[in-house]
Design brief:
By secondary structure, the chain is of the alpha+beta class. It has 2 domains: about 10-55; about 60-150, no CATH class. It has 3 helices and 6 strands. Strands 4-3-6-5 form a 4-stranded mixed β-sheet. Strands 1-2 form a two-stranded antiparallel ribbon. Strand 1 (about 60-65) and strand 2 (about 65-70) form a beta hairpin. Helix 2 (about 80-85) packs antiparallel against helix 3.
């Protein structure tokens, strides 16, 4: 059995129209993909910024005798309090940020041992009061966030 197909002449106008439509479809898909990628990156940046701003929150906790003790907003802690809290921290752990004298120091990925933080705390001025300290387990592994906020006010 022989099937005869009707031959049709294809004009340049048809080819150009099909190519232009195909290019518009590809361009539209590329724009949507690009917008999706940019939106995800903006969301990630917003999350990182909000994470840094929560580090400056005055409500925090301190470890005393391996128990989490709440610190009220604006409550001032002495250097001896913070040193006592640091002594209860395990010998080595991974810290993400250290906030001292309102300066955020990023030490992400570095393992900081207890003595380094004790030495850093001892370098603070004698009239420095520690406003807050935060020790927060970030994930199920041994990654911790330690935040130290110092106020340069004289003790009352």
């Amino acid at each position: 059995m022989v099937v005869l197909l009707k031959s049709r002449e294809i004009s340049y106008h048809d080819i150009i129209t099909k190519v232009v439509v195909l290019l518009l479809v590809i361009l539209t898909a590329a724009v949507f993909i690009f917008n999706y990628i940019i939106a995800n990156r903006v969301d990630n940046l917003k999350n990182q910024i909000s994470h840094v701003s929560t580090l400056k929150n005055k409500y925090s906790y301190m470890l005393k005798n391996n128990k989490k003790t709440s610190i009220k907003k604006g409550e001032a802690l002495d250097k001896s309090d913070i040193i006592e809290s640091i002594i209860n921290i395990p010998e080595k752990m991974s810290f993400d940020y250290l906030l001292v004298d309102s300066k955020l120091i990023e030490i992400q990925g570095k393992t900081v041992n207890r003595m380094e933080i004790l030495n850093y705390t001892k370098q603070l001025k004698s009239n420095t009061m520690i406003k807050s300290v935060k020790l927060k387990k970030i994930n199920k592994y041994t990654s911790y966030q330690f935040t130290l906020e110092a106020a340069l006010n004289e003790r009352k």
